[in-house]
Amino acid sequence: MFKMAPCTTGMGKVEATSIGWRLRLPPTTNGVYSNAQLDDYQGRPRRAFPWRPPLTLTIRARFSHEAGELRGTAGFGFWNSPYPTADARLPALPRAVWFFYASPPSNMALAAGVPGHGWKAAVMDAQRPLFYLLASAAPAGFVLMRFPRLYRALWPLGQRALGVAEAEARVSLTAWHTYTIAWGAQQTRFLVDGAEVLQTPRSPAGPLGLVIWLDNQYAIVTPQGRFRGGLLTTEAEQWLDVEIS
Q1: DSSP letter at 1?
Q2: Which of 3, 122, 187, 234 is most exposed, with the fewest beta carbons within 10 Å of its own?
Q3: What order do you get walking across the sheet with 35-39 strand by strand?
Q4: Residue range 70-122, pLDDT digits in tens
Q5: Helix (H) or strand (E) holding 63
Q6: Rounded to an integer, what distance in angstroms lies between the CA atom of residue 129 and that of residue 119?
Q7: Per-domain residue ranges for the chain?
Q8: Pairing state of beta strands 209-215 and 73-79?
Q9: Between the CA of residue 120 and those of 4, 76, 138, 166, 222, what are the distances in Å?
Q10: Helix, strand or coil, per DSSP, at residue 106
Q11: DSSP 8-state assignment for residue 151
């Protein structure tokens, strides 16, 4: 069902295994962006990305390191690849339905009560009328969000505008687990080993592409207006093993 092709940058490597794939990052420095990736949308315009709901993805996966020890970002699921690319895709507001990992110093604290880093089930859909309506007020909003009482009162509206829903997936990353994303037209469910981690009515419409990746970057994006990104040094080899059902 899912036909994917490797895409690597820097020191990243993708290798076939007896059960699926291993995505590898040898030790690298913060001067080189390194990414090991599988996806099914290279060379396509976003309108031709292959997937819309309803759809279920099941992946067995394990990592080389536990959360906090693994450096960079990683994960698997569906997104719209919102950044500009060499194949002429222009920037776009993000849409994603995925299991997502980010290590410190990443801080993408977009869901109230959920840490800005770690291993999560997550949905985002910024292509919503409410986001466009509130976008012009963002500079003032960043200032208001720096006051805790105003953040607690106002950020739920900002989170709804971004179409964000998240929950921590509290499992050992180095053990094999079966991850399921049931992406529906009216709701999205995330399960680990059959146990529900997140259920939300937020569900991007698509089309989205399937991506599995492991890289050495970090990002800081907060309601208080902190935006920063960069690369991390990885002193030991890191990897992600996946088997797609």
Answers
A1: -
A2: 3
A3: 5-9, 35-39, 209-215, 73-79, 95-102, 118-125, 165-168
A4: 999 999 999 999 987 656 678 899 999 999 999 999 999 999 999 999 999 99
A5: strand 55-63
A6: 29
A7: 5-41+50-244
A8: antiparallel
A9: 23, 11, 26, 7, 17
A10: coil
A11: H
Which is nearest to 12 in space by CA: 23, 1, 2?
Answer: 23
| Beta-ladder partners of 16 | 21
The helix/strand/coil state of 107 is: strand
Cα-based distances in Å from 65 to 111, 156, 197: 25, 33, 21
pTM, to two decimals: 0.95
Q: Which residues of the chain have pLDDT under 50?
A: none
Considering only CA atoms, which of 131, 133, 185, 198 is closest in space to residue 159?
Answer: 131
Q: How many CB atoms lie within 10 A of CB 151?
A: 17
Which two structure tokens, joined as six digits, stand for 209? 């592409």
- Report the CATH fold assignment for 5-41+50-244: Jelly Rolls (2.60.120)
Q: Are 97 and 79 in contact (CB under 8 A)?
A: yes
